[in-house]
Amino acid sequence: MNNIDKVKKLMQSAPGGIITTAQLTKAGLHRGYLHNFVESGELYHFGRGLYVQSSAWEDDFHLLQRKYSRGIYSHDTALYLLGYSDRTPTRYTMTFPKGYNALSLKQEDLIVKRAIPENYDFGIIEIQSPSGNLIRVYDLERTLCDILRGNGSDIQIVSAAMKRYATSKDKDIHKLTQYAEQLRVKPKVLRYMEVLL
Fold this sequence. Notes:
The protein has about 200 residues and is of the alpha+beta class. The protein has helices at about 5-15, 20-25, 30-40, 60-65, 75-80, 115-120, 140-150, 155-165, 175-180, 185-195, and strands spanning about 20, 45, 50-55, 70-75, 90-95, 110-115, 125-130, 135-140. A 3-stranded antiparallel beta sheet has the order 1-3-2. The protein has a 3-stranded mixed beta sheet with strand order 4-5-6. α7 packs across α9 (about 175-180) and α9 (about 175-180) runs antiparallel to α10. The longest helix is centred in the last third of the chain and has 13 residues, at about 155-165. The N and C termini lie far apart (about 65 Å).
């Protein structure tokens, strides 16, 4: 089996049609082979070290998170992914740790939020994207606190999500209160809960 065949085999086994230069290096192959596949139209370059098969079904949520591994889907985007908003976000929102700066981030059509280290790590869960790939998103309680904390979220979306949460059998008021305290939105959360419960 020659090197081109080895690259083709890697491409065939690549989940979601995504192949990285790191995978080639690990297999002992030169990353230059990927450029041959880009020139032939079989692959396209998505980001630094990240290539996607042209025939693959494009999953924006998965690809963006592969490109920006420190980004966690949050706010309105998380509400949508968790099934608590019917409104498909026109721009995705991702939260990054404070101090994280990727130059290409400024060129993406993303809403970028920053969190201090102690607030960045908690509430992260893995779910399936609408296309079935695993992505990281903040859980519902964290997301509700985030949207109450900031500005820019549509009040109708916030109200609808809070009403739905209050009537959900899966709600965890204890966790919501803990998160609200850590994120300093406890008075807002309690106001909503007093009205809705």
